[in-house]
Each structure stands twice: as C-alpha cells, then as structure tokens.
Amino acid sequence: MGNILSDFLVRRQEGYYCRYGDFFIDPLLPVGSALVSHAHADHATPGHGEIYCTPPTAAFMRHRYRRQPSHSFVECRFHQRFVVGGVHIHFVPAGHILGSAQIVMEHNGIRYLYTGDYKLQGDDTCEPLEPVQADVLITETTFADPKIIHPDPIAEISKINDVPYNILLGAYALGKAQRLTSLMNTYCPDRKVFVHHGILPLHRLYQSLGIDHLRYEPYSRKEMKASERNRVYIVPPMTFNSYYKATDVIRVFASGWQHLQRHNDMAIYISDHVDWKDILHYIAQVNPTQIWTIHGQGRHLAMHFDPSLYVRELT
C-alpha cells in the first residue's frame, strides 16, 4: 500500500487536476479529459474533449450545451469501474440532484473520495447518498459552519399550507425545482403547481429518466389569476428577481442561503447541501485519514478535529 499523495489533486486555473491520471474534476475551462460530478453550471461546462459522467448528467448537459459533440460523453453508471490514465475510478450517488456522483479514485492502494455537492436529507427525485469509506475525503464545505443547521424540509415546505395566497416560488431550475414539486405534491396536496417555461424541459427530462411521479402544469396566466388562492408558480432566479413588483402573490425563495431570504414575504430554508451536523456525520462514515476541503471554508473543520485528523483546504 502506498502513501497518500499530497499532490494527487491540485487546484489549477481550469479546475481540480489529477496529474496521475491526467484529468480534471469539474473544470470550468475546456480541458482534454473531464470528470463531471453533476450537471449544475458551476461544475459542468462545455468544450471538453472527453466528459466522464453519469447518464443523467450527460442528458442534462446535452440539453444545456447543444454544441457539445455527443460522442465526447463517456457515460458511466454508478459502480461501473473505469480507468483514466493510471487511476481506477467509479461513481457512487451523492444525493444532491438526479445523477449527481461522488467520484471514487484509487491509486497505489490509496482511495480518494471526491464528494462533489452532496446531501443526506431525503429526496425522492434523486438517488440517495451512498456512504463510501476512503483514506482521503475531498469534501465540499458550502455550509461547514457550526452555526448553520438546516431545518426539516417537510416542516419548511408545509409553511405554504398556512398562506391564503398564491405563491411565486423562486428555485434553481435543475434539481431544486423538481424536489420542491415533489415535496408540495406530498405535503401541500391542495396546492396546484405551475412551472415556468425555463424549468419545464428539465421536469420533462426528469420524467424521461424515471422520475415520473411529479404533478405539475405549465404556467398559465389565467390560472394564476383564478379566484382560488392555492397556486404555486415555480420560477428560476432571474425571473424571480425581475418579478419584484409582482402583486397578489407571496414571494418566496427556497434556499439554504440566508441572504436569499431577505426582502421576501416569508423564508423557506431548503438546501441541497450538507449542513454542519450532516458533514460531521458523513466524515464519521467515511472514516478518512485526511480531509481536503473545497467550495467553501474548511477552517471550522480544521478547528473541530484533533490534529491527528489532517484537514487542509485544497489549493
């Protein structure tokens, strides 16, 4: 068994680079070989020579990046093993959105686990997170702060039941909008869900990929002006921001970020990332020797753990 390589994954201008396999993970600039954890735009970009990803991630990227050659996608199912350069790789579910993957990389007897974005909360619109033990955990730290504890999403979405008005609900188009639709279908059954035209194709893609239980309709101005006050109109962030003068609706944005709750009529804290308690729980499951942090600040984790568990920010 080899030693942990401190330079196994390093941050470059293009993205996170593994020279032992000559590939990048979630690069933002065009590269030869890219491993893409999921299809959100801050992780999945076009222009790469080869894109290794799950089939749902490939479907979302094909939808968004029509000029990306179809043959450049190397679709890998969860647990399907493949080799890039000298590194053995497979994907396991991350629980973030449909098709989101943790990336398991093995080299010289050492296992490196790149989480991508992930969550432990239940979500019937994507594959649940699958714990993996590894020597090195490379984790996102978006909400890795002891002050941040996400509330129960069922309690949050149920707030809508107490509002006697139609609701303009802001949400990210991929992943969050589909999760909210499912939550409202289940816990706000008297609400009719309408979907913005910019989100509608993604709902339909979800259906084509097996998530076929969502109940919704395309946006209808007539329906939103009906006398019954039980409509919810899900819109993407740009539309939500442009509708700041909207009347006869309650403005709500579903997010874990506190700053996105300001100036709205009510707050709904629903996040697709791990909070402080969940990240600690997952670290215990992975049982790593080292933790490398990305996408946020790892200083709270570094202060929390005994020095025997090496924590550093990946640079």
Task: Give a quick rundown of the structure.
It holds the Pfam family Lactamase_B_2. With 315 residues, this protein is an alpha/beta fold.
Keywords:
315 residues; alpha/beta; Metallo-beta-lactamase, Chain A; Rossmann fold; 2 domains; seven-stranded mixed sheet; six-stranded mixed sheet; 18 strands; 20% helix; globular; MBL fold metallo-hydrolase
Largest sheet: 7 strands, mixed
- Shape, principal axes of CA atoms: globular
Q: What is the β-strand count?
A: 18
The CATH homology group name of the largest domain:
Ribonuclease Z/Hydroxyacylglutathione hydrolase-like
CATH fold assignment of the largest domain: Metallo-beta-lactamase, Chain A
CATH architectural type of the largest domain: 4-Layer Sandwich
Strand order of the largest sheet: 7-8-9-10-11-17-18
| Helical run tally | 8
N-end to C-end Cα span: 25 Å
**CATH C-level label of the largest domain:** Alpha Beta
Q: Helix and strand string, N-terminal first?
A: EEEEEHEEEEEEHEHEHEHEHEHEHE
**SS content category:** alpha/beta
Helix percentage range? 10-25%
Structure in words:
It is a single chain. The longest helix is centred in the middle third of the chain and has 12 residues, at 176-187. The chain has 315 residues and is an alpha/beta fold. The protein has eight helices and 18 strands. It has helices spanning 55-64, 153-157, 176-187, 200-208, 221-224, 237-242, 276-286, 299-304, and strands at 10-11, 16-18, 23-25, 33-35, 50-53, 73-75, 82-84, 87-93, 101-107, 110-114, 136-141, 166-170, 192-195, 217-218, 231-235, 249-253, 290-296, 310-313. The model has no long low-confidence stretch (mean pLDDT 95). Helix content is 20%, strand content 25%. It has two domains: 10-146 and 273-313, Metallo-beta-lactamase, Chain A (4-Layer Sandwich); 153-261, 3-Layer(aba) Sandwich (Rossmann fold), CATH 3.40.50. A hairpin with a 4-residue loop joins strand 2 and strand 3. The strands form three sheets. A seven-stranded mixed sheet has the order 7-8-9-10-11-17-18. Strands 1-2-3-4-5-6 form a six-stranded mixed sheet.
